[in-house]
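CORE FACILITY INTAKE
Project code: CF-77B
Contact: R.S. (postdoc)
Sample description: multi-component assembly, two entities in total
Requested service: structural model of the whole complex
Turnaround: standard
Below are the sequence entries exactly as provided by the requester. Do not edit them.
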Amino acid sequence: EDKVVQSPLSLVVHEGDTVTLNCSYEVTNFRSLLWYKQEKKAPTFLFMLTSSGIEKKSGRLSSILDKKELFSILNITATQTGDSAIYLCAVGEYGNKLVFGAGTILRVKS
Amino acid sequence: EAGVAQSPRYKIIEKRQSVAFWCNPISGHATLYWYQQILGQGPKLLIQFQNNGVVDDSQLPKDRFSAERLKGVDSTLKIQPAKLEDSAVYLCASSPGRYGRGDQAFFGQGTRLTVV
């Protein structure tokens, strides 16, 4: 059975801290790994990773994939209260299947 | 570009009643997904369509849930009869559906269902 595991399940930090969120996976036909941010109801896309070792960056957020060890990390530097959200990791498989992890709840305190 | 449209945004029903949700994907997107997200959990795939064909409905409780995507565009998800444990946010998403490309999915605002 396909599995996507995220850790930690929840995290509380202070503004300015750096956080690292983890995602490990076991799937049959891996094609991509995606990160989403969910603030209210609709998850919004952050990154899609398909190649190992190539870091993707967007402002204070960055992510990298290790296809040998089957995991990815999402880093957020200089956190702000607006970063408070649920961060979802999903694995895309052949046939456009998308399997999600349970998410990491991040709360940034001012 | 218009996003994924869902309606209604909220619904409260009594157990054993029926309910239907509607989704209009981004124009031209071949793949449409329905996910169920229970509070504190990640989205769980209920059904995936490629155009108007079902690709995966292995986690759809078929005794009470049904979904269709007529003409390969918009879709409806129905629950009949509803149970208390169906209380969740129902998310619709779509992607271009280029086979094997691992495209990102775009999500609608979701429908929050409360069964009392």
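Facility notes:
- The longest strand of chain A covers residues 30-38.
- The radius of gyration of chain A is 13 Å.
Invoice: internal transfer
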